[in-house]
Amino acid sequence: MNGRYSTEVARAIQKIWLSHSPRQMREGFEMLRKASEAGDADAMCYFARCHLGESYVWSGAGFPVDEDLASDLLKKAVRLGSASAVLCALRNGKLSQDVAGEMPFGSLFEAYEEILSQAEAGDAFCLYMIGNVMFWGDYMLICPEEAEKFASAEEYKRYAYPIAADYYQQSFEAGLGSGFGNYRTIYESGLAGMETEVFEEHMEMLAETGDALVCNDYGKWLEDEYDDAPHAFEYYRKAVELGDQKSAYNVGTCYGRGYGVDEDTDKAFEYYLIAARDGHPMAQFQIGNFYFEGRGSLPCDYSQAYRWLSMAHENADCDERTSWQAAAELGILLQDGLGTSQDDCQAYRYLAEAERYLADVWEPLDAMVLNALGVAYGFGRGTDENIKLAIDYFDRAIDFGLEKAKANKARFRRSLFGLGKWARR
């Protein structure tokens, strides 16, 4: 509780959170490990952060995620008097009542004041942490008497967001870009009265320091706000060169549509593959679609298509578009047993997911999905038979010119009886 980090911790923080270099990040990781093992409480805190995943540290260095280890380290660091650990544990829910009762601080406010004093002395990470305290509302737990002043979450944000923005900006100016995502949320909320020029200035500044994640964000800003294709492409590519492999999705998209660079389908695949291997769901869908259709110089390969589309669907989370697009192609593959075992029930589950978004499906996939739904309903494959609905789907697929749908419709005829009802031939 001396209010300052040890030399080893300060240097490790510089390497891990301010260097933007995977090699230096790994060096900092080893420094924290050794200092942590030697009993440095702050080192334990930051070593714990290294194990908490990409919400706490850039994934470019490849640090192992181990939440149990992180939890143990944070609790020990709190008990040993690390004010940083108190705020970190408070933020990620590890500060249980028994742990808080054992910390050598009289209150959460005492720990907060220690970090605040370091922030006011210009420490980049402490500036960032104070910004987080305000942004996430931890301030109301630290100062419960202040919480009574706010009648709603919106009222609190109007108070806290300008303060958080100021601390984040100071941390950016000190070289740390970790708070940029929250800073962007503040800007987009409009609750801090932040001018666009100020937001853009800080984003460009961080991009120029070599922050890979912000390079990608700045490229997207240039694309969306200015339609500046050449510079957007350059920042996307710079992000990849700096180690943000997920940004390769945007580079692939540029190559795929000739945005800021000559159109090159094979180059698009090359960059999509980089992002897909790093777990980017939409990139995984694109790789699956390349194999599904046989795009560019890539031959059609249904087994590879099934593999990548399955990953995309599994990883889509809240990305609704990726989920149903992958489901559409998976349903077709499973219904016909292409690249995988034929499975009518699973095929229909995927097709039913895509069915809700048919207005957004693109050619030629739209016709293929409509035809597959016609097969499912017409022959009761994975769902109850409904020939009238099947004919409707076949007709819609025929409108797109799909010959296969014509052949499938020809397997049904209008009954001479029953007022023109459809029946199988």
- What is the count of DSSP helices, taking H or I runs of 4+ residues? 24
Enumerate the strands of the largest sheet in spatial order, edge to edge or round the barrel: 1-2
- Gross geometry: elongated
Average pLDDT reading: 93
Overall structural class, as computed from helix and strand content, comes to mainly alpha
Helix content: 55-70%
- Evaluate the radius of gyration: 27 Å
Oligomer: single chain
Order of helices and strands: HHHHHHHHHHHHHHHHHHHHHHHHEE
Number of strands: 2
**Distance from first to last alpha carbon:** 85 Å
Strand content: under 5%
Which consecutive residue ranges, at least 5 long each, have pLDDT under 50? none
How many strands, which pairing sense, and closed or not: the largest β-sheet?
A: 2 strands, antiparallel
Give your account of this protein's structure.
The structure is a single chain. Helices cover 67% and strands 1% of the residues. It has 425 residues and is mainly α. Among the domains are: 1-105, no CATH class; 120-209, no CATH class. Strands 1-2 form a two-stranded antiparallel ribbon. Helix 7 (108-120) packs across helix 8 (124-136), helix 14 (212-226) packs antiparallel against helix 15 and helix 18 (281-293) runs parallel beside helix 20. The N and C termini lie far apart (85 Å).
